[in-house]
Amino acid sequence: MALRRDRTHTETRTKRPRSEAPAYPEHHTAPAYPEHPAAQGYSAGFQPPAPAAVELRSVVRTYGRGSNTVHALRGIDLSLPRGGFTAVMGPSGSGKSTFLQCAAGLDRPTSGDVLLGGESIARLREDRLTELRRSRIGFVFQSFNLLPSLTVAQNVLLPQRLAGVRQDRALAQQLLTEVGLPAHGDRRPGQLSGGQQQRVAIARALITRPEVVFADEPTGALDTQAAQEVLALLRRAVDSLGATVVMVTHDPVAASHADRVLFLADGALAGELHRPDPQSVAARMADLATARSFAGVAA
Ligand SMILES: Nc1ncnc2c1ncn2[C@@H]1O[C@H](COP(=O)(O)OP(=O)(O)OP(=O)(O)O)[C@@H](O)[C@H]1O
Ligand SMILES: [Mg+2]
């Protein structure tokens, strides 16, 4: 009887439709590269369970004092799902970089809180925050920020070196292969094109298997073809590797690679688009620009 119950239990488990399987692992600090179940769950249309990859609670960031105060972020409440690709857009000066830096623990909010994987980071001690950034967050910058004196492979391994963990050369080679640079590990960054350098930067951002990759205008310095390749890689990091990507961009075509676009205006959230296409993103940006010029006229 007990045996039969056991077997029934086993059958029930094995016969459970794929769509009922948990979309995400309980803990996401070490996604199983190169194939992560989170990505499969996400592409199957799942909503991720709490905690979110990144959560902002009433995040305010002001610069300066008194009459010189700049309200860069005016109270952002936001939840970014695990295994998602989010683009952040808005007019120049709307707070996009400030948002990214607060969300990534590179800057501290004036008030409010930021949670990474459910853990509050806004008031972490500086050494803990540095450690967290090195081990749990990846960065891609507009200007690549590779160290010119190191080889490409050494650049990819740098986050592990800084974090004081074993340098995984096999993973570095695997990531360089994934970004289309399998034979470039011994070169210096100066011997690569801009697009190739940015692909190295993406490999570097993924080497620690971070919970979130933050990218600030990653295609801003690239031509259309190189930009397309970088965007395809970020998309693949989400779909195949289970990464979570948050990308600031000015480009509606770049934003259309994301699952969701958030719009910022004057330090506040000003709407969002799901499954964006370039036309609808451009139209929303034009609306924001029009609203801003009306506000300027009214002021
Ligand atoms: N270190 C700083 N000191 C003073 N003001 C700052 C500082 N950093 C940003 N700001 C101000 O905060 C506001 C938001 O800046 P932020 O760089 O986040 O905008 P952005 O949306 O990234 O703009 P862009 O598209 O031009 O990169 C702007 O008014 C900017 O001048
Ligand atoms: Mg900026």
From TrEMBL:
It comes from Streptomyces finlayi. Keywords: ATP-binding, Nucleotide-binding, Transport. InterPro entries: AAA+_ATPase, ABC_transporter-like_ATP-bd, ABC_transporter-like_CS, ABC_transpr_LolD-like, MacB-like_ATP-bd, P-loop_NTPase. It comes from the Bacteria. Pfam families: ABC_tran. Residues 1-29 have a biased composition (Basic and acidic residues). This is ABC transporter ATP-binding protein. Residues 54-291 form the ABC transporter domain. One of its GO terms (molecular function) is ATP binding. GO terms for cellular component: membrane protein complex; plasma membrane. Residues 1-46 are annotated as: Disordered.
